Amino acid sequence: MNQVVISGAGLWKPRHVVTNEELVEAYNAYASRENAANADAIAAGEKEEIPLSSAEFIEKASGIQRRYAYVKDGILDVDRMRPRIPRRAESELSHQAEIALHAARQAMDRAQKAAEDIDLVIVSCAYTERSYPAIAIEVQHELGITGTGFDMLVACSAATFALQRACDAIAAGSARAVLVINPELTSPQVNYRDRDSHFIFGDVSTAMVLENADTCTSSHAYDVLGSRSQTVFSNNIRSNFGYVAYAQDVDPYCEENLFHQNGRSVFKEVCPMAAEHLQDQIERVGLNVTDVKRWWLHQANINMNLLIARRLLGRDATQEEAPIVLDEFANTASAGSIIAFCLNHEDLVTGDCGVICSFGAGYSIGSLVLRKR
Ligand code: CO8
After folding, report:
1. Is 235 inside any structural domain?
2. The domain containing residue 333 runs over which residues?
3. 301 lines ligand 1 (CB under 6 A)
4. Which of 168, 296, 314, 333 would disulfide-bridge 340, Cβ 3.0–4.6 Å?
């Protein structure tokens, strides 16, 4: 089996920032307007009043302060409350391929790899903007990479699950190097009229190059000591948007077609699963929890990360040990742990170990144990 290394990582963030205060102002204007329009029905007990949101609640409950938006126009417009993303012609580069390319080029530069060095492109994220042709094949074409490209969807664990596929391909010798990209364009699936979830997500794009250790020339490379993915079915996080909607005679914009969740249950069920998964995975590669210098954890909720770290370490983790990036980025679906890695790995020295871990919808949990070369 070939030794696999992560030799380059890339992060692209949109120009537009949406603060909690801006989101809450738009949401509360919408809720107040609806409540005023339905005042009689609310007074008669026929309709429930829509509750107001608060920026203080959002930061306290989630740790999120702001998020990036690929397109901000439309999100804060009370008559619309969704981004206004222009439809592109089939001859133009698709939106998701565009943001995938930004991160991919960075990762390739950092890994010192050219198109001809790469055999496989995996675009892996929570949603793709179309069914086919695969976004990965469009990206592959734009970069001039020969070989294979495919898309895969695993919600919050899309990045770690794709990294595991890349490891398997390189270890087995079916690819020399693999480009894994996570163009997380989440804003079109956010229900900005839903108080419980209007604040959760942000847009971003991340990428990683993995290769056979024998070809690695990068100055910041990590041996993959082990990778593991795990799934347990749950209905607690859902989006019902899909191609069958056309045949179901339902409103394509109905609430249940957008992201929705039972956040409390997710919190309670996923934290112990993730802590147990991590403990087990670290032992499988012959390490102890105390050998892990850095935890690049999924970024859904700061309290989840604090709890998982506490379960593992028996104490609170420092920002250096388990960096939090969701204050700036919010939940970026599968990209969260990769952003944490991108912004917090170059200070590690040879022999230092770290773990990338995702957890979320499915449920799905994925992890990679790394050691700096
Ligand atoms: N403003 C003010 N008050 C609020 C708000 C708000 N916006 N929302 C809720 N409240 C109130 C509630 O009404 C409740 O009031 P009361 O106590 O009077 O009933 C109180 O605040 C507490 O509400 P909750 O119990 O709901 O609050 P929590 O402390 O549980 O926090 C969270 C809510 C932040 C949602 C939290 O439960 C959480 O983060 N859970 C984990 C969720 C998670 O990680 N989900 C992962 C989803 S992402 C994923 O898997 C990928 C999907 C693919 C990407 C999708 C892209 C669109």
Report:
1. yes
2. 222-372
3. yes
4. 296
